[in-house]
Amino acid sequence: MTVKDDLYRQEILEHYRHPQNYGRFKRPTFQSYKINPLCGDEIDLQLRLDSRNQILDARFAGSGCALSIASASLLTEWLKGKDLSRAKKLNSGKALKFLGAEIGPARHKCALLAFDVLQQILKSYGDKRTSPKKITRRR
Predict the structure, then answer these.
(1) Model confidence pLDDT, tens digit, residues 34-93
(2) Is 110 a catalytic residue?
(3) Among the four residues 30, 35, 61, 77, which has the most C-beta atoms within 10 Å?
């Protein structure tokens, strides 16, 4: 393991122990939930948008391993201030890069759980004519 890998692992553990944006809004604009049936990790992601579809704030709640919690923490930090069109351009490869460390294929499901929940939100949103109160709960 290199010094760089060790630093990234430290950052993952820091986000796991002290996640950013952990909690829930009383009235989110969008919300979606997903559980990883293989390990039981679960993430409930909430977004608050303004009238121009810019993400004012993002929060998450849930439980899981260090990778799933750290990736949700990092994703919510990245989402703040972005508009939905920019969020739609995020792909799984870029989402994995938020963690900074090489993640083996067996752990991709954990590391991408929050990204998958975001994709559910973006899919439910559709186009700008969609009502801004879409809330999706999936198990």
Answers:
(1) 999 989 999 999 999 999 999 999 999 999 999 999 999 999 999 999 999 999 999 999
(2) yes
(3) 30
Among residues 43, 66, 74, 110, the one annotated as catalytic is: 110
The answer to whether position 55 is within a domain reads yes
131 inside domain: no
Catalytic residue among 14, 39, 77, 103: 39
Give residue-wise pLDDT tens across range 82-114.
Answer: 999 999 999 999 999 988 878 888 889 999 999
Q: Which domain, by its residues, includes 30?
A: 3-125
Q: CB count, 10 Å around CB of 23? A: 9
